From TrEMBL, chains A, B, C, D:
Species lineage: Bacteria, Pseudomonadati, Pseudomonadota, Gammaproteobacteria, Oceanospirillales
Pathway(s) where this gene product acts: Carbohydrate metabolism; tricarboxylic acid cycle; isocitrate from oxaloacetate: step 1/2
Species assigned in the record: Billgrantia pellis
Top-level class of the enzyme under EC nomenclature: transferase
Family membership: Belongs to the citrate synthase family.
One Gene Ontology cellular component annotation held by this UniProt entry: cytosol
Protein keywords: Lyase, Transferase
SUPFAM superfamilies, sorted: Citrate synthase (SSF48256)
GO biological process, alphabetically ordered: carbohydrate metabolic process; tricarboxylic acid cycle
Name the record gives this protein: citrate synthase (unknown stereospecificity)
């Protein structure tokens, strides 16, 4: 079935013949394996641009920052899935990644777009403060959330934020988006009516955009990072299972709010 | 519902309070972000052991080797999924990872288990040649495949194999499993009746086991690596789509082998 | 981690004790198994409302209409996934469902919301024609697509549309949303500048909303239906594989648009 | 890339032209929509055989039996995923289905294969008792589980078992596999050393095989059924969320067993 106009698939990432695998113009076996770190290679895969120390250091820092935060919902879902289907590690990883959506880990992308929009207003002539005020107020008026601010556990600033800003500075990245991110943090109380501190999902785009990372690829950063964390959790699950115990605990406080047939007693039962 | 005996979930990977996130005993913000590469961090997540130059170099090489090989089936599946559901990047990555199974990318794990079994026989007193002969013949007798040998495109040795063996040697990894892998390659013609050369899925465990990488985590290596490749393909798909074009081409040669109602003509049609 | 305000999980769908499983207030074993069809049960699960002949007939018709349409992209992705990971049927089904997104099968939900918006305008006092004109023009002005109109293969009206409208009429469903759907079809040439005929994704909500099916559950209909189709394709794949052949064909016409190293020749190669 | 020998994709399920969609030899719009229930259509999709009242009644009963059992692990995983990524209903359904694996819902397939093996021994001349004894003892000797027996909640016979056996009898299905299933139940105490009563995952293949359902498609039954249950849970989740509350409860009793940095206190913290 022809969907859309295009019938010829094109790609600029990789080609190969029987002897050589080419990735972004380079011979994978001769030029990349052993000559590049995985972090650099991710950058090469994304846009083929030459490796830079700034980009690698900042990207490494963000991947380390977001890979793991204990038994968060997506990790619980992944471990429950592995407990039920241990024949398919890939399925349990996939189940965990499916929770990297708009509410939780997708906020990095959304925050990056917010900062880019503010940067555009500044480029158009506004002061930073006015640009922040206008863009954040407009979001608020549309009842849209301000992505990357506030955290259920880290009420003061998420501790990963300082660490990431420190790396960006040391590595010599452009700090423009860090300044935008902090200006948004300062403006939030006046616009939203309460303090919401920078969390890791705002700090990631703030430092990555200043290191030349592609805006549209931001959402890939938490996804790649969490894959590492999920694999570690699933290795632990295979040796010291807790997937079903998590599910057991989750069900202990469930309240059933529907009807029951005559004579049915939940005493000793469970939903 | 209580499934299994355990009701208390336990984990040794991460804990946190409002100020500090702990991963494998270290303060994430103070000790890890900015101080460790993503590759090192993956190793820390997996087993908490101290970072070593050998482990990092070998792991980096394997992740780079397996991350990308063009529009292979799992990448096609992922790009088709993104074309149909662009609101959910995580779903398209998940679809691609679901193809990292026993037939294709899971072979790294299976080959590692084969090499470990041979190493065990050698530890028990057999010569390398006898151990290889016995273990490979037994698999053959049970009609099981020899994972990690033969490749649909790279009929001579997969070019990534030499590159990985070279990195292992340079980095100072133990070469025991490389020797086992090559002994299996030499034994295959006599046992299987045809040459099947080492492919990347055998080379990966051969070098990683010699660098102290945990056997049970081997399957995680292609999964993590491919996630990077998939994200790059999906970034390209968002800018220069080919998912539907791939599907269109795939359907051009489909033969429908079932019945049709009276008067139905496939002229101009398509399945 | 406490995300959101709620800490007590509540559900009204099912509870159980050691002897009895309760679903929507009924004893599953005594009152439902053997007494209800799967289609009725899906309705009971969704909202617990009593079964009606109209709802069942219309829902059956829509599930049959959308379950299968040959080797469409999501089926190709699913069969490729199964070929690579045959140990996990559930993973291949999941990969196929991940392609039920906003561009392809999610259009049923979006079209239902369009019709409900138009119905709301009519309830507010507009004529059907004005309501259609206003709502469709506003979407067009926002450059949003008109979901459920036009089809890559069925340029005249999708043949499933008449069949579904016929079932709705025979079953005695309310036809209000069918009329809205047809009014939209008539208005499109004037607003969009070309004919786009009703396709199955508009016909499904048109008949289901008239049968009292919940608006928010519309997206579940193609998902449930396609699951049946995917299982049939994967049973066929296990007996007569074509997943890798589809991928082979898809790759035949791929054009590599990136650079290559000196001396690399694509002759005889493939991406 | 050419994987395997086949390059031409073939299918016998569906084809189409601009006017007609053919499924299993029939015109979808003219002969199937409005003329067949979804349950019948699933059977037609699977093997194209004519509809029979026995097959439909037994299949309906099994789909109803297995679709829903409250907040089991896969439903928890699915609701957590939806809470984190509400933009992608299909992703949350996929996450739930990924838990339909070998340990939990895949047991229907495994039990069916057990019964078919016993039936084969009986066809070869053994008595039912000897065949059961031999096959079950051999599994036990290989330390393999006996799939479909025992249940974490329903210690006496799972209440769905009688209901399914009653439907099979009333519908006039062959009861051979029901007899085999009960003979296995009687033999288990002598072989395993404790009572393990028939659960729904053994009853499903026992009745379906007697109704002519294809052995290799058994695993599709819980997958299709659970899709309906998952959609209902996700509709409820969109209106009355509990995904994050489940995760919160699951984390309350987590014990962190790793090391912590000097000065770190878990008081008031959480993993």
């Amino acid at each position: 079935m022809k969907i859309g106009h295009e019938t010829i698939p094109r790609t600029a990432i990789s080609t190969s013949n029987a002897d050589t695998i080419v990735v972004r113009g380079k011979d994978l076996s001769a030029e990349l394996i052993g000559h590049t770190t995985f972090t650099d290679y991710f950058l090469i895969l994304l846009d083929g641009k030459p490796v830079s120390d700034v980009r690698r250091r900042v990207l490494d820092a963000t991947l380390v920052a977001i890979a793991e935060h204990g038994l968060v919902p997506s990790v619980q879902a992944s471990r429950m899935t592995y407990a039920a289907a241990p024949e398919a590690l890939q399925g349990a990883v996939a189940a965990g990644l499916l929770g990297c959506g708009s509410v939780i880990l997708g906020a990095s992308q959304a925050a990056g777009e917010l900062f880019a929009e503010i940067a555009g207003e500044v480029d158009g002539g506004k002061s930073l403060e006015s640009a922040v005020e206008d863009v954040v107020s407009a979001r608020r008026a549309r009842r849209e959330p301000i992505p990357g601010y506030g955290h259920p556990l880290h009420k003061a600033r998420d501790p990963r934020v300082e660490a990431l800003f420190g790396v960006a500075q040391e590595a010599g990245a452009e700090l423009r988006y860090v300044e935008i991110a902090e200006a948004v943090e300062r403006a939030i109380p006046g616009i939203v009516g309460k303090e919401l501190k920078l969390n890791v999902s705002a700090a990631i785009p703030a430092v990555l955009l200043g290191a030349g990372f592609p805006l549209k690829a931001l959402r890939g950063v938490p996804i790649l990072a969490r894959t590492a964390g999920l694999i570690a959790h699933l290795l632990e699950e295979s040796e010291q299972p807790c997937g079903f115990a998590l599910s057991y605990q989750a069900a202990q406080r469930v309240e059933y709010t529907g009807e029951v047939p005559p004579g049915f007693s939940q005493e000793g039962g469970e939903s």
